[in-house]
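(Structure overview)
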Amino acid sequence: MTDLVIYNPLMFERTLSGKLSALAKKFPVVSIMGPRQSGKTTLSKKIFGGHDYVSLEEPDEREFALADPKGFLRRFTGGTTPASGVILDEIQRVPDLLSYIQGIVDRENSPGRFILTGSQQFHLMEKVSQTLAGRVAIVYLLPLSLNELLGRPMSNPWEIDRLPEKKRQPTFKLEEILYKGLYPGIHDKGLEPIDFLSAYYRTYVERDVRNVANIGNMDAFQRFVRLCAGRTGQILNLSSLASDCGISHTTARHWVSVLQAGFIIHLLPPHHANFSKRIIKSPKLYFLDTGLLCYLLRVRDSGDIPVHPMKGAIFETFVFSEMYKAFVHSGELPPLYFWRDMTGHEVDIIIDTGKKLIPVEIKSGETIDGSFFDGLKYYIERGVPVSKTGILIHGGDALYQRENFSVRPWFQCL
């Protein structure tokens, strides 16, 4: 396996940087949500270098904030001259601070005053939105995109149907990035994926999950997470998941919500167009990082992926996560869906631009087969507002136009 050591961590240019800076000039509070180890602290310190910084993971700081929130915040707001601002890292550890922050920004409406980071959105998102409504801008930072890892500018995700110029193929193979995933810590420190992801998963399950949700049977929950990994890229069937794990349907639904809250999975909704009322209505389940996915699938080496029975699902997960990150890191809500009718016709991803629906098909094969376009052709025949063009993303290195379809290699998803 070839090592994937790309850049020093401080050299990762995050697509979200520009949007984050712009929002901080307009809103008194900016909240950066995302999974642990996605780079929220590094980015916030880089963009807001003049701000004070406090980690609420630190026991002393957390105790102070819990016991005397006014006194805690007074350090950053007292005096006749307001401070430039403060970064409050892992705000979910002391969510009651939000009410006191509201009072401060109502009195002193200075833009960029508070930068909040959080790694759980289970209850925090609702509390932030309610308490700081109209005062806070919320953005999300996920693990690196492939373009960020390679130091390439992100293409405009709204113009994905335009055939781009060919870019140089990375020095590493596709299966290597699928195996390692894109958490910054793996790449900037040269860590073995299994070491990083094992520690990451234990922290998530043993601490974060216990903090977020009252889960008594951790063995059953861990089994549930691995069962979800085996279903990435598939339509969510809660009854099947519950049965295989030996839990109730209600518990399975709750645990899926917990995984969403921790930015482990995303449920991709079906697109309800007027083409037919007989369409699948359940969402598809995707993991947001293939490294963590491979760890949960017990893939021990990148060389195992080409012969793995879930190779196609792992690749599809990679492409989905790249598209998802392209919109999220631009400060946009991802307009991503899938489409499948009751007769078995399907398209992996639908991008709803508002003006047209762009279908995207994902195939892990390196060699393009004519059958790869069948789903795209069928969907395009539905007519307006479907785009007259479609996109095929594959596991090879070819980039070209075939009829009215853009054929893209894996390293140019966007």
Observations:
- The CA atoms of residues 295 and 333 lie 28 Å apart.
- Residues 146-412 form one domain.
- Residues 1-10 have pLDDT under 50 and may be disordered.
